[in-house]
Design a protein that fits this description.
single chain; globular; mainly beta; 93 residues
Length: 93
Amino acid sequence: MSQVQQSQSVTLSTRAMVPSMQRVGDRQIEVTYLGNNTHGQPTWVLWNPSEPYLIGLLVQGKLGFTFEQRTDQGVMLHENISLQRVQRALGGY
């Protein structure tokens, strides 16, 4: 059985390699759980499904989430933030 992490409208599934569509603000984002990384932390990859490109990598740590976000200016790293803050970084509310 899969576990689910929830925060307002963002739901992070822990079913490995099963993409799910999430609405964040006015964007549709494809979220796929990759499993645990080498440090044992749950990891997700986020894609733009309409024109496939990587949005970022999300890792859950002990103090919150680390979000490596791909931007026009390069990679932006958000460390130890809440899921609500990830949502705001993605242009949500």
